[in-house]
């Protein structure tokens, strides 16, 4: 037995023994065991700061070595299967090693607050300090620390594209093989998956959470400000070139479970940590652990980057339009109070679906009260008390006659290869003529909210008589978008409208993605440990062009070593891809195989398949015995 607050990490075991009644001979024999002894947090122990009393949750957040990381747009949310693999031989040594690199002192390693903060700083390498010429044993250089390098610009030729990863183990293997050089490349959802693996292998209950419509407020206004000129084009950087607020389609971080003796009573439980912070904390790229209860109540004065997390799920989005009659040159067109943090998803304990989404759990209520309630209003006002600029934007009011109604129709599910339409309905509810200016634009976007390129744009000016209505439609065909899309196939639509006679303005935005086919995975039968098992991967090419340079990434905790390999084939236009491989399962029980198909023309076609692996059985032979398996 060891104390519940013992430092976590690698220990050496020495056994001292001697004869108690031989006072004249104080000699003690010392036996030193050569095997490394790992001490972990123990969420089964009531005295441990990570203790979790719910058995189902404890299994999900500590023992489950497979799961999902949620991605997509708010209206197209989906879980991507991931092999966490926290019991693989490579994981625990790496977890202890990055604690060494983080410089957390030995006496603090029994404190999950300090350990989780260190993990959040060490998974993603700080890009600003990186130098490729640094010797790869120079760990005193801040730029050489971190398990992975982040990249979001689509240029991955000197590494592995983020969407090609299927599990954590392969990433950590690459980290070891490279001599502890940061692995290229990851993004927030991969960093969150790696944090999940490392926390679980250390015994810390951990879950990956995805915030849909996630705000990045750079000026402490608790708002994200977007500026549009008279033509409806977004002005990057704002009027002064210093506004870099952004809204991500989704952002993924982690919740870790622990007791918080350093905070007032009631603020323990789930704590948010972010391995992809967009702002520095204590001069490091780290974030958390921030109490979810404190965030929900708006008590952001407890530190641990609570204001940053609060703004990600609560900030308002404000649209500003160019106004030549304004002293500032801009006027507020619209404020979205409940657009950010619309859903926060994680995998539901005890559930696991290969294609369905009933295994997802929305935990947004743990981060904030229901929108529009008095409790929610109190939380926001409590949070903005110390922000003068926050008051400025939240208290801003204006009085403009609004007698024209605008409605942007939602875009239905669009499969990749199909055209889509953006429709704005304009109705004049007044008894007078109105002159309307309408601008509609569709943009190819990175999931971080950064615009890649404009797909198509339409502008028009027309008159509406009293009580008249008119539809304005922008049609985007396959040829308009295909060569311009980036990973994720995400599209943002803006519409900006003005009424000349009353100075009424209208602005709206919508996000959606082009749906890709799923990778269908079939296992021929129940597997058996150390016995050949066949699996087949198939999907239909939705494009009018062939798929070349095909590659598969395959993973499965307890099934095989993770691998990526080229497939010698060319998939014809609208043709079927099919590939069969054989492997030998390593561990019995319910297992999941995870795979991702990539080609030059179409990539990130992923899927997962859960199946049962039986134990090996002993077979008797006359006169002798023969054992199947090892």
Give the terminus-to-terminus CA distance.
Answer: 33 Å
- State the major sheet: 6 strands, antiparallel
The spatial strand order of the largest sheet comes to: 13-12-11-9-16-17
- What's the assembly state of these chains? single chain
Give the overall shape, derived from the CA principal axes.
Answer: globular
Which structural category do the helix and sheet elements fall into? Answer: alpha+beta
Strand portion: 35-45%
Fraction of residues in helices? 10-25%
Question: How many strand units?
Answer: 35
Mean pLDDT: 85
Number of helices: 11
Nearest-angstrom radius of gyration?
28 Å
Which spans of ≥5 residues are poorly predicted at pLDDT below 50? 127-144, 376-397, 621-630
Care to give the gist of this entry?
Helix content is 15%, strand content 36%. The chain has 630 residues and is α+β, with helices and mostly antiparallel strands.
Question: Strands, helices and their partners?
Answer:
Blueprint: E1 9-11, E2 14-17, E3 29-32, E4 37-39, H1 55-63, E5 66-73, E6 76-83, H2 91-101, H3 112-122, E7 148-150, H4 168-177, E8 183-186, H5 188-201, E9 206-216, E10 223-228, E11 246-258, E12 269-273, E13 290-291, H6 292-297, H7 306-314, E14 316-322, E15 330-336, E16 343-347, E17 360-362, H8 364-367, H9 374-383, H10 388-394, E18 404-408, E19 414-415, E20 420-428, E21 434-445, E22 451-464, E23 469-476, H11 478-481, E24 490-499, E25 505-515, E26 520-523, E27 527-528, E28 533-540, E29 551-555, E30 563-566, E31 576-583, E32 589-598, E33 605-614, E34 618-621, E35 624-627
Parallel strand pairs: 7-8, 10-14, 19-25, 27-33
Antiparallel strand pairs: 1-4, 2-3, 5-6, 9-11, 9-16, 11-12, 12-13, 14-15, 16-17, 18-20, 20-23, 21-22, 21-24, 24-25, 26-28, 28-31, 29-30, 29-32, 32-33, 34-35
Helix pairs in contact: 2-3, 2-5
